[in-house]
Amino acid sequence: MAIDSGASEQSHKVHRSRQSGASKKKKTKPHKNKEDNSDEKKQNPKAFAFSSNSKARRLHSRAVEKEQRKLHIPAIDRSYGEVPPYVVVVHGPPKVGKSLLIKSLVKHYTKHTLPEVRGPITIVSGKQRRIQFVECPNDINGMVDAAKFADLALLLIDGSYGFEMETFEFLNILQVHGFPKVMGVLTHLDKFKDVKKLKKTKQRLKHRFWTEIYDGAKLFYLSGLIHGKYPKREIHNLARFISVMKFHPLSWRTSHPYILVDRFEDVTPPERVQTNNKCDRNVTLYGYLRGCNLKKGAKVHVAGVGDYSLASVSGLSDPCPLPSDAKKKGLREKEKLFYAPMSGLGDLLYDKDAVYININDHLVQYSKVDDGNGGAARKGKDKDVGEFLVKSLQNTQYSIDEKLEKSKISLFGQNPNYSSEAQGGEKNSLEGQEQIHDRESLEQYLTDEDDDDASQFGEENDDDYLDDSRSLGQGKDAQNAMLKSEDTDRVEFHGGRLRRKAIFGNDVDHNDLKDSDEENEQDENDGDEDTESSSSSDFSDESGEDLKPDENVMGNISKWKESLLERAVSRQTTNLTQLVYGKSASTSPTLVTEERDSGEDEEDDDDEFFKPKGEGKKTSKGGHDDADFNLEDCSKFTNYSEPNNWKEKEVYESIRDRFVTGDWSKSALRNQVSDAKTEDEDDEYGDFEDLETGEKYESHLKDDSGTDAMDKEDDAVNKERRLKKVLKHAKFNAQYPFHLNYVQFVL
Ligand SMILES: Nc1nc2c(ncn2[C@@H]2O[C@H](COP(=O)(O)OP(=O)(O)OP(=O)(O)O)[C@@H](O)[C@H]2O)c(=O)[nH]1
């Protein structure tokens, strides 16, 4: 009974039908009731209408926003070929963790640990994407420069401290430069002990960030450090975000070419720098070209330096190429490339005309050891051509150019060994060891000398000394390698990376002079020591002999040279006069001097010989100024006629009648007379008498007596014509007196 009573008392919960989920859907799918439902819909037309006003407004604005977002101005992508790497600028106030973030990202992408962040670092982040990380400097100029090329700006903010002015300054600069994509990253969040406070701060900073940029701007949180690095998971998320981000081209940038230089090289000839420390330098800049094409000769602005024109532009092979287009997911380990020349990372260095491969020091040292010990043992089986070539290359001390240069000295033919220098590749290789020893001692001498003379030679020598000492201070094996390499190239730390600088002729000159001095001293000390082993010493000996001969010999040479100099000078003068004035000019001075020697009286007589009367008069009037007569002056044949002294009464009276105030009739008469005179002179022209022989020469007209009657008739006709002319003139004068004067004056 008890059981029955209990059962009757038990109250069951009413079954609640499913409100959502799959079973609910199943139940609300009754096929039978389909028609009924459709009827219901028809019956209730307001079922899908909005019930709330505000909700409807919100829905509408959201739909409009969505549509608006789709409406983009079509961006024309002018790029062809491989897209240049996107530039990610990491910005933030000092000590916020910029370097650490770049290192972490590079580590994530490439699995390489970056020792130092210097200059742009290019990495391959995906099959179609490369990224260049650049740390933004903390000064305003650096920010302006960075804003010019940034495709994405990572703004690092110290979460424990809050926003700093640098962030806002950079945001303002970005706005002026077209505003690229921006992402915030909060660091130093591990300093919060209170989780609630951390949460609140995050919220506060996020909203502040949104007001500054736009609502919903992405802000990342890096919670702290694990083993001195940011957590892998957070870096992975950030990297993923960067990898898939869409970069919209900025209009100004797409229409202007620009380059973010990731490497530069000073290619000024060293001798020019030596002569003038402040000379104009030639600088080669390397980097990916963005925007549009760049032409040779285009004017470029180098940020922070100034405006320049491009001497040349050339395309190089890509130092960090995109992976092959194989159909596979992700990147293989090999394809995880990166290129950071300024940070001293990456084994390949692409130059304008060469590709350099960096090989670690411990890999370079093997060959010398082989030569000494294992060389003989391996001789039998070692038939590798490449290895042999490398060894022979290592043993060569001088390039072919240098050898050829030195072989020129064998013009004197004293030592046939010099000419063999140009050929002796094998000989050099055999004597290599010996030569190295010589060089070693030479280097020691050099350094000693530099020690002493450092104060005298100034900075350049100091640098040389530093280089030498640096090269010598690397242990014996390394020292050998350095000494060998010093002849053709010098390994030095420049621009943030190790570079081998090729040194030819001119750089060696400075040292060669010292070498020669040293060798001379060495020769004096060592006496008969054979110096054939090193060609440099031979060269210096030869040059030394030429430079420092005995004093007696020098005296003879100088005497011989004196006469040579005189002869050369005399020749030079004749040559010069001939060159400048021609042959006639060179001979004329002698003639003139002869004439001058014969005396003035004779000169006067000679002048009259065989000269037309008119000219004779002219020469008597305008003679040469003997005092100022210059033999080598081309102006000696010109006649300097004396200017009339217009203050003399006779002179100015002679032209008085030519003016308005003068007597015109007189001048008319004078004209007639002058006309007649000129005709007479014409007739007489050519009459002269030879004073030496006493013969008189007259014109043929006068001599011919048969033609006299004809002449008289002509004279009569001429006179008539002249009279007619005068009458006409007089008539005309009466009519137009002024014009007549004018015409006369001109005549
Ligand atoms: N506790 C903590 N320390 C951090 C965090 N981020 C960076 N640091 C430390 O801050 C110091 C500065 O980091 P850097 O990466 O050199 O900062 P930076 O911005 O590159 O510095 P500058 O280049 O000098 O401006 C380092 O010792 C980092 O270990 C972080 O989130 N938490």
Automatic annotation (TrEMBL):
Cell compartment(s), UniProt: Nucleus, Nucleolus
Bias type Polar residues, positions: 572-591
Name of this chain's protein: Bms1-type G domain-containing protein
Main location: nucleus
PROSITE patterns with a match to the protein in the record: G_BMS1
Domain Bms1-type G: 83-248
Single Gene Ontology MF annotation: ATP binding
A Pfam family matched in the record: AARP2CN
Region (Disordered): 1-67, 415-434, 444-555, 572-630, 673-715
Organism phylogeny: Eukaryota, Viridiplantae, Streptophyta, Embryophyta, Tracheophyta
Domain of life: Eukaryota
Compositional bias per record (Acidic residues), positions renumbered to this chain: 446-466, 515-532, 597-608, 678-692
GO CC, alphabetical: 90S preribosome; nucleoplasm; small-subunit processome
Family label: Belongs to the TRAFAC class translation factor GTPase superfamily. Bms1-like GTPase family. BMS1 subfamily.
Entry keyword set: ATP-binding, GTP-binding, Hydrolase, Nucleotide-binding, Nucleus, Phosphoprotein, Ribosome biogenesis
InterPro entries in alphabetical order: AARP2CN, Bms1/Tsr1, Bms1_N, G_Bms1/Tsr1_dom, P-loop_NTPase
Comp. bias regions, Basic and acidic residues: 33-43, 484-495, 609-627, 693-705
PANTHER family associated with the record: RIBOSOME BIOGENESIS PROTEIN (PTHR12858), RIBOSOME BIOGENESIS PROTEIN BMS1 HOMOLOG (PTHR12858:SF2)
A single BP term in Gene Ontology: maturation of SSU-rRNA from tricistronic rRNA transcript (SSU-rRNA, 5.8S rRNA, LSU-rRNA)
Reactions that this protein is recorded to catalyse: GTP + H2O = GDP + phosphate + H(+)
Basic residues bias locations: 13-32
DNA-binding is among the record's keywords: no
